[in-house]
Every structure is written in C-alpha cells, then in structure tokens.
Amino acid sequence: MDNEPKIPKNGTADGKTEKESATGLKNMNRRVFLGTVGAISGTILLGKSGKALASEEFEGYPNSFGILTDLTACVGCRSCEKACNAVNKLPEPDKPFDDSSVFLESRMPTQKAYTVVNRYDNPQDKSKPIFRKIQCNHCKEPACLTSCPIHAYSKTPEGAVKYDPDLCFGCRYCMTACPFYIPAYDYWSALEPRIQKCTMCLPRIQEGKATACAEACPAGALTFGKREELLKIARKRITDNPGKYIDHIYGEKEVGGTNWIYISAVPFDQVGLPTDLPNKPLIEETKGYLAIVPLVLTAWPALFGTIYAASKHRDALDEEKKDGKKPEEVEK
Amino acid sequence: MKKKVSIVLGLILFIIFAAYIYAGDAPASSAAQLPGVRTLGSLSEKYAPVTFDHAKHVTIAGACETCHHHANGNASLCKDCHGLSSADFKNSVVHNFMPCSSCHNALDRDNPSMPGLKVAYHEKCFACHRGMGDLGSDPKGCTEMCHAKKV
User: Fold this and answer.
1) Residues A1, A42 contacting (CB under 8 angstroms)
2) HSE-up of B95 (CA within 13 Å, CB side)?
3) Are A144 and A153 spatial neighbours (Cβ–Cβ below 8 Å)?
4) In angstroms, rounded to a whole number, what is the distance separating the alpha carbons of residues B145 and A298?
C-alpha cells in the first residue's frame, strides 16, 4: 500500500491486449486515483512518512514509442499540422495550412491546434530557415501528471501522456507545471471546459499505426518508432554526419527524458526549446516537500497533543498544590 | 571438328553475353537506357503526380550516386538490396535498375531507420531544392514546382 502512489503505476503495463488496455485505461485512472487516496490516508493513519510519495527511479516503459524530430530536415510545409487537424477533428484554422504568413509570428499550440510549426532564423545559412514543430513532448515522468490532483493524466505504456477529460475538473495546475507550456485550456467552452493537447495519436498507435504527423511528413523530419530505436538512429545521424548536428539529443535526459526527442544543427535555445531544465524529472523538485505533508499530518497532532496533555497535567498538579494535596491522590 | 565448332559457338555466345552485361553495367555509355521524363504517381493522393525530367537532372547531378544508393560508399552486400525478391533480382540484372519502392515502401514503425517511399523521394529533392527560393521559406514552392494540389 505504501508504494502505491508511484507515478509509473498508471496505465496498463500488465501485458493486456491492446483492446483491453484501451478500454481499461479509464477505469485504471479511477482505480489508481482511489488507490492513491487510500494510500495517502493509510499512510497518515499508520504514521508512515518519508518515502511514501517519493517516486523511485523510473526508466520508462521499455517498448514505448516516440518521435524523433530532425530539425535539419523540416522544410516548414505544415503537413503535420494539417494531418493533426484532420485526425483529431479540430476546427478549421483561421489561415489555411499552405499560408506561410503564419510564420511571421511565433505560435504555441492551442485548443484548436495540438501542434504548430514555427520558423527560426538559421545563423549558419540565412536562406535555409529552421522550422520546429511544437507539441506535447510526452515526458517519461510528466510534471502535468504529478501536478494533477485527481490523476486526469496518465502515462501509457505506449509512451503517450494521456489526458482524461471525464476526470478533469479544470484546475489548470498542469498548465503551470508543464516546462514546455503545452496544455492549452478551452476557455471558449463554458459548459465543458477542457485541457487540450497532443495525444500522440494513442488510438492510432493502438491500431498499429504511426502518428498522423509522422505519417504525413514528407521531409523525413519526423521519424516514428520505439524510443530506444530512435535514440540509436539519432546518435548514428550525429556520428555519421560530423559537423551537421550539435552533439546533443534533446529529450534524451531533459526532465528525466521525453518520448519526443530532437536533433538539431543549432543550439536548442535558438529554436525555442528551454535549455535550463534539469535532467531529473520535475517531481524531484517537489518530492521533498510532498513527503513532508504526511509527516506533518501525523507527527503534529501527536506532538501538539502531547504538549497539550503535558501542560494540562501540569495545570492539574499546580491546582492540587494550591489545595495542599499530594499528586498521587489526584490520580485516584 | 565438332569440338572446335562448339568451342567457337560457345565463345560467340560468351562475347554476346559479356557485351550485354557490359552494356547493362555502364548506363552512361548507353543513354538510350536512361529514363527521360518520368511520371511519379504511385503516391499521388492529395497532389497530382510529379513529372520528373530525369535526363535534365542527370546533367545537373553529374553522377548517379548523387541520388541513387549504388556504390555510394555503403559497403553493403549486393544481395541486401538486389536479393530482396526474385523479381527485384531479375529487374536489376535486366535493366540495371531497381525502383526505390523495392526497399522504400509504406512507413514501417518497426523499422524506423528505413524511410518510407514518400520520405525517400522528398529527401532527394530537398537535398538541393532548399534555400533556392523555391522551397523552404515558402511551402507554396512545392505546388508550384513539383506537384499541383488536387482540387
């Protein structure tokens, strides 16, 4: 019970068939949520503290999928945006997908577009600007998940960070927790406000397909496959083409690793990716604090209760002294 | 006597065969074998087929291996590509040519290091057609230069 709230416990790593896991995810969330509540209350009752809420070393699901973005290959055709829009049945964009004037401003994903492509200057060759597709990076240990009070997020064995709108009550903690500023809020829907973000095409992956964006990409900028394979491909491209890439795979280690990884010819901060992130999952930053919560809840009542009882006892003794009786007689 | 005749006949056959193989092995010396203008339409879905002037690109690229894999320094075994299927082998012996689609097919998520046909085609185009003002900064270049958008 005391090890229940570990993050990676969500999802279906128990070797169920794809269909089973697809239908089981929702139930699993509820179960994990209830389990977590039970575990926390159990922890408090039993007075266990410390490691209960601490995530242990999590290497990620071994066969999870990912996408490798090769920033040297993207030509900014926005086929990925178009495919994403169609697959997720998102509303028509304000400007058509072949309108290059969108590159004049820096865009972020919204509730109407789970992915957008931005243009950046290429310091090496002005005539070849760099384009970067922005979307959820599907962290191995996502901050959105750990910030969510009711586990509306889950990390699936397929690699996708899944969001369950049925559980979400709209607190938007995930929006502030995400180091990439990805979750977007549907402020326009008054009755059913929802977080919107890239789903990594989880239903398509479960059908045995690749993500819509990777399938649409004509330039070879998006490669879909097992994350471990992609890391090998990325490393091979860097070693096989000396001077073409900087020697860094973004997302291999950042915030504990992401399932979406990048290689680039220019430093990643020049294409808008934060380079000041720790290599540890962001939960590591808050883990110490979170671990103290049950300690406070269990130790403080006992501590103050004892102090209160002791002071009360002393008062009683003082009273007895005034009356001239011996302490032993008070007990009787 | 019979023996001599069969040796001479065998020699003649060998020379014809050798000449045939040699002609097949050296496409530059027999320009008639090279494709001229080709229509690449196997992937055509949202865009019209591409009319590709192979002859024109030969003069620009200079060498086959600028675009094609063959003898480009990857010391893989002949059979790795030519032995994929008996049809591919026959094709490559008779025409000295293997279509890209022999290896590059639909996207295979279990083999991510093998680019799909769409990526294989486009990567070759983008190797040159970027930063030329036609592609890269303006995606519209795709439909103006290569394949018009289907209505």
Assistant:
1) yes
2) 11
3) yes
4) 72
Q: Give the model confidence (pLDDT) of B57-110 as tens digits.
A: 989 888 888 888 765 555 567 777 777 778 878 877 776 677 888 888 888 999
Chain B residues touching A121 at Cβ < 8 A:
none
pTM of this structure: 0.72
Q: Which residues of B76-102 are buried (b: 16+ CB within 10 A; e: fewer)?
A: eeeeebbeeeeebbebbeeebebebeb
Q: Which chain B residues are Cβ-neighbours of A78 within 8 angstroms?
A: 139
B113 touches chain A (CB under 8 A): yes
* Bridge partners, residue A254, by sequence: none
Write the CB contacts of A96 (distance below 8 Å, at least 6 apart in sequence).
none
Contact yes or no for B109 and A65 at CB 8 A: yes
Cα B137 to Cα A168: distance, rounded to the nearest angstrom: 40
Cα radius of gyration (chain A): 26
Do B133 and A214 make contact, defined as CB atoms within 8 angstroms?
A: no
User: Considering only CB atoms, which chain A residues are within 8 Å of B136?
Assistant: 75-76, 127-129
